[in-house]
Amino acid sequence: MPEPQSPRARRVYLETYGCQMNVADSQTVTTVLLNAGYGTASRPEDADVILLNTCAIRDHAEERVLKRLGDLAHLKRARPKLKLGLLGCMAQHNRSAILQNASCLDLVAGPDSYRRLPELIEHASFDPAIDVRLDRSETYADISAAHSGGVRAYVTVMRGCDRFCAFCVVPYVRGRERSLNPQSLMREIRALAAQGVREIVLLGQTVNAYRHCEIDFGSLLRMAAQVDGVERIRFTSPHPSDMSDSIIEAIASEPKVMPQIHLPVQSGSDRMLAAMDRGYTVAEYLALVDRVRRAISGVALSTDIIVGFHGEDDRDFEATLDLMRTVGYDSAFSFKYSVREHTRAFKLGDSVSETVKGARLQAVIALQEEIALRRNRALVGDVFPVLIEGPARRGGGMMAGKTPQFKTAIFPAREDAALGTTLPFRVESVTAHSLMGSLA
Ligand code: 5AD
Ligand code: SF4
Question: What is the pLDDT of residue 146?
């Protein structure tokens, strides 16, 4: 975040939880507050206002925030003028419970209320200020998210979700689907390219459901690929049922659109998929994987898996492991089912014990490690163009970047290997999570 504009500007410390959409929303929040004359603080101790941008997807995410609020309440007791605010999905999800339990809160703002934040902070001087109205038209299209530097930037192209999967709280906390105007999106992407961004990630809760008048997501990918200076385009997260031929063709034919797709499957059992209201069967999902792999050479696939959804028995779970073996994902995010209030599955119950959920999660993780390691081993000796991002986390003079498939490449630093350049990299050894080698 930029440093405060003047020593007298009130300073805001913003902490972000959850998905990439929240990270992008926090950048929008930063712009709103900077425009209103606030400065930013990099530590809670230096701030006049502390905001937590929260996630409600699983119980665990909410517990973390409640615990953090407990810590911050101490700061507030020592400095009563400090204002404490809760933003995002959790604010929307269980505001009454939060207000009852967190008397330290001065303001609560849902994902469609960020334009009013300066006003809410102001009003919080008197009473807790609350705005959790969902707005079918709010897209923040005119507010450029403050880019935090680096070679990659995230651009929100649609907000909300209309799918209502039985387990998921997102449609309730983020509201109805709405797509941003393609012209303002292209303006934003051009501005990011001018700031040195090389890779753009298009974001949306069901990003491939994007539609603005005649422009569908396939056309949007093609438009983004026309922007000079942008080298790579990715997107997340699509829904399998919205993966049209137009999108697959755009990925296959636009060299700037990277061969990498996150295709959340959730379960490998038709019975569970139906109970989850996912809108596809295992056979339909596998046919999509087939279509994608035929059209896009070298495509990497990743997924999301939920274990222990209500009613999941051993056979259903075995079917998920089978599907993982059949597809052979490059990576997978797996989660224990967490019952969410307001969702359709809330009333069904939670039949799988915590112990069984834990054991199933471990089995999914172990199988995925095995599959990813096998897939990465097959790449030894291959050469990939790697977009260089900076020093590797492990240090020791090593640098890191990403292959087109979004695999992490780690290699010894070299003088010509500047941040933001793309250079050929040869794979010499691998783990399940990264490729080690040298610039070719
Ligand atoms: N419990 C567990 N995981 C969930 N997800 C969404 N809702 C829940 C829930 N109630 C997972 C899904 C989704 C990812 C973002 O989070 O796998 O794709
Ligand atoms: Fe949630 Fe389903 Fe929408 Fe994804 S598509 S955000 S899982 S309701």
Answer: 79
Task: Please report which ligand is nearest the Cα atom of 242.
Answer: 2
> How many whole angstroms separate alpha carbon 12 and alpha carbon 33?
8
Q: Mind giving me the DSSP string for 97-125? A: HHHHH-TT--EEE-TT-GGGHHHHHHHTT
Low-confidence ranges of the chain (pLDDT < 50): none
Examine the domain organization and report whether 95 and 166 are in the same domain.
no
pLDDT value, residue 396: 87
How far is Cα 249 from Cα 24, in angstroms, rounded to an integer? 28
User: What pLDDT shows up at residue 137?
Assistant: 87
Ligand 2 pocket, residue 89 CB under 6 Å? no
Predicted local confidence at residue 116, as pLDDT: 94
**Which atom of ligand 2 approaches the CA of 237 most closely?**
4
Q: Report d(CA 294, CA 298) in Å as an integer.
A: 9
Question: Do 265 and 366 lie in a common domain?
Answer: yes
Three-class secondary structure assignment of 133-184: CCCCCCCCCCCCCCCCCCCEEEEECEECCCCCCCCCCHHHHHCCCEECCHHH
What pLDDT shows up at residue 8? 63
Instruction: Give the per-residue pLDDT at 104.
Output: 84
Q: What is the domain count for the chain?
A: 4
- CATH number of residue 423's parent domain: 2.40.50.140
**Minimal CA–CA distance to 121: which of 44, 39, 12?**
12
**Could you tell me the two tokens for 332?**
């997978």
Number of neighbours of residue 162 by Cβ within 10 angstroms: 12
Q: Which ligand is nearest to the CA of 310?
A: 1
**Residue showing tokens 């230096």:** 46
Is the CB of 158 inside a 6 Å radius of any atom of ligand 2? no
CATH number at residue 75: 3.40.50.12160
Cβ 168 under 6 angstroms from ligand 2: yes
- Please give the helix or strand (H or E) that residue 260 lies within, else none: strand 260-262
